[in-house]
Amino acid sequence: MIGYRKRIADALLAEKLSYMGAVLVQGPKWCGKTTTSRQAVRSEVSLEDSVKGKSNRILAQTRPDKLLEGAIPRLIDEWQEGPLLWYAVRSAVDRGGRGMYVLTGSAVPPEIDDDAERVPRHTGTGRIARLTMRPMSLWESGESTGEVSMEKLFAGEDVTGAKSGLELEDVCELICRGGWPGALGLSGRVARGPAKEYYLAIVESDISRVDRTLRKPGRVDRLMRSLARLQGTQSSASVICADMKANDSDTLTEDTVYSYLAALRRIFVTEDMRAWCPNLRCKTPLRTTDTRYYTDPSIAAAAMGLGPGDLMNDLPTLGLFFKTLAVRDLRTCAEALGGSVFHYLDKSGLECDAIVRLENGSYGLVEVKIGGDALIEKGVKTLDSLSAKIDTTRMPSPSFRMVLVANGDIAYRRKEDGIIVCPIGCLRP
């Protein structure tokens, strides 16, 4: 481990406060939202404070404006426990200016949520910006050397010779540990403790608390194990039901699966990836269903009860879990550059794991593989096939094409096609 680094979200929060009245910092519990937010504010109030939490929640229901009083920028921690605060902040920003409030939340209350898309009915447009935090990327937690910069990839700079300090066994450990700040500095089974405790909290209570709907822990557990088996796919509710039935004696109805999936999205346990729809040379029908991912691979490992040794002994399963790790880190890197990550799949079966797209329209194509010559060649073939379909008379060529691998010592650019092979232990924004 190289050493804990400053969170990428720190700079993003400061930037958003410079032009918006308030910022909502949202993401799963224990990912560091409050710690990051405290560095940007002058006062704070918490709705989950051990001493004043109850009285603060009462005020949030009766006089939410009172909780906004204090030096600004002011932090309102776990604001979702008092949903009326959303409207109070909107009104205060209308009367005030920029950089007034930071709200943190580990759940989206149903009072302001459109169930299917997690879009508030009163969005706060022009008043409240959004910043999604996730468990730490390998760059932030110090496991990546950072010798391959995504910003430099978009600039066309060479990355040959960049070194990674991670072996495949290390990657398996990091998948199971996850990017939880509370796990940093720990090792072995103890390091996997925060992820397991987080998983148990989801199953036992958190998924029911988000919308005050009682859900049986056993059913939640079975659903989350099914999602772990199907991560990185576009599985419908019917497919999830069939998987649960094939692996357990009990299953859920499709309507129940949809309600559980909505609840998991609201507490940021899952984060689906949108489909990319480029201009193509031929009219190939595209599949636009979102791809399902856990926010952190350790959630899937905890759901399945798997440890690093299990992943080392089952490389196909390791490939699924590594893809979730890679997507987490790619998302963090992309957002630091003002970009997003998408997925490509067309009806011919051609699939690309990740497309990193920036606001200026430039993009990079990424295939995620464990490593080894055969799998790297498979990734190269996919990148070549997709590149050939893109109509470069109507949109730019990709800024870079990359196979992101778990197992590898150095990054290099292939002479024959210019495709970059990069170990994840090198990557940074």
Fold topology:
Elements: H1 8-19, E1 22-26, H2 33-38, E2 43-46, H3 53-62, E3 74-77, H4 84-95, E4 101-105, E5 128-132, H5 138-141, E6 148-149, H6 150-154, H7 168-177, H8 188-191, H9 193-209, H10 217-229, H11 237-247, H12 254-266, H13 297-304, H14 308-312, H15 315-336, E7 340-345, E8 351-357, E9 363-369, H16 373-389, E10 400-405, E11 412-413, E12 420-423, E13 427-428
Parallel strand pairs: 1-4, 1-5, 2-3, 3-4, 6-13, 9-10, 10-12
Antiparallel strand pairs: 7-8, 8-9, 11-12
Helix pairs in contact: 7-13, 9-10, 9-13, 10-11, 10-13, 11-12
Can you offer a commentary on this structure?
The protein is of the alpha/beta class. It contains 16 helices and 13 strands. The chain has helices at residues 8-19, 33-38, 53-62, 84-95, 138-141, 150-154, 168-177, 188-191, 193-209, 217-229, 237-247, 254-266, 297-304, 308-312, 315-336, 373-389; strands spanning 22-26, 43-46, 74-77, 101-105, 128-132, 148-149, 340-345, 351-357, 363-369, 400-405, 412-413, 420-423, 427-428. The strands form three sheets. Strands 7-8-9-10-12-11 form a six-stranded mixed beta sheet, with helices on both faces. A five-stranded parallel beta sheet has the order 2-3-4-1-5, with helices on both faces. Strands 6-13 form a two-stranded parallel sheet. Helix 3 links the parallel strand 2 and strand 3. Helix 9 (193-209) packs across helix 13 (297-304), helix 10 packs across helix 13 and helix 11 crosses helix 12 (254-266). The chain is globular and about 65 Å long.
